[in-house]
Amino acid sequence: GKKVLIVYAHQEPKSFNGSLLKIAVEELTKQGCSVTVSDLYAMQFEPRATRNDIVGRLHNSEAFNYGVETWEAYKRGGLSRDVVEEQKKVQEADLLIFQFPLFWFNMPAILKGWMDRVLVQGFAYDLSKAYDGGLLQDKLSLFSFTTGGSKEKYATRGDIRYLLWPMQHGIMHFCGVKVLEPHICYAPENVSEEKRKEMLTAWTQRLKTLWKEEPIDCSPEWYFK
Amino acid sequence: GKKVLIVYAHQEPKSFNGSLLKIAVEELTKQGCSVTVSDLYAMQFEPRATRNDIVGRLHNSEAFNYGVETWEAYKRGGLSRDVVEEQKKVQEADLLIFQFPLFWFNMPAILKGWMDRVLVQGFAYDLSKAYDGGLLQDKLSLFSFTTGGSKEKYATRGDIRYLLWPMQHGIMHFCGVKVLEPHICYAPENVSEEKRKEMLTAWTQRLKTLWKEEPIDCSPEWYFK
After folding, report:
1. Which is deepest, A10, A136, A173, B23, by most CB within 10 Å?
2. How far is CA A149 from the centre of its chain?
């Protein structure tokens, strides 16, 4: 069975994001996948990139450089335990699903902090090992999120794909992770109960054939054509 | 004199970002501006959007909804003290400068958390009060950041402006804040000491005539033309 890591960033299990998470865990488990969830708020996951992420002495204690220090710490096995645990989950996973409500055209800070702290140099990429050479080969990723505004509202100011560029291309593609079509639920708080149920059903249906999907072509054309 | 708020997200005062901050404080003060700095790491600013941001009882304690709860709390003066303090600084400022190292095509999580927690509904925008009707009118903003990669490296995979869309348009423009040209220092860690000095001088020079600058046209064309 495939291994799936769901990185989940919502405070409330009864939320629509909570329902989407529950569906993914149930459906993927039913398929025989082994599913791990990093429930960031429940874990009180630390989003700040600080000196605390390095156990023991610094490479250069005169001037703190987070990128250099975490790279050096990774090489000698000196990253903080919470980061190492997340890296293990990523390493084992065939598929990473990010489930979150869109905050300001972007991930919530707690999830951005997961990216900042977990995907360090040496682990996720290296000098001249980025994009198709990124270190997290043979993995898939999927950004699944809810919005506050309606689809129409987003469409009046350009394409929603514009805001996927930093997340999908700038992070996942950079690390060599392939990207599946995003799964977007528009404004679940402002639609009817019936429409919400339809959205949940659509997610279940998509998951049933997820492993047959082809990754997107993560080039500028996909985002800005 | 004008009022400037600099929201600064770097751990190390001796860093290049630290130098850019120092220059901005000195030059703007010399011009007679009143400058306030929110030094996020030094403040140990909380990036996580949680129930702790609401003082007292929740509007709906059955299912926690961060957007609804902070909106309600804002209206009754019930947001946590650290958020209220930042909102006061924003309210008083004529110009917001965000100074940070680019992490993953984006702001560091600690700065994203500042956006998530400070710019709540009712304070920064409201139903049907967004973009040119956003609540933070008559303010300017400027994203000043350093990159890890060179200008040439960014250019091989599309335009660096692509990644400014969520920050400049999705946040500042949405709140009604006008956006000045970003200030980008490419790869200061990988250039000569002379080149670094040139970059610092260029920032000083730019600040001298900053108040004469026209905001950018924050439309899709500016980003994706």
Report:
1. A10
2. 21
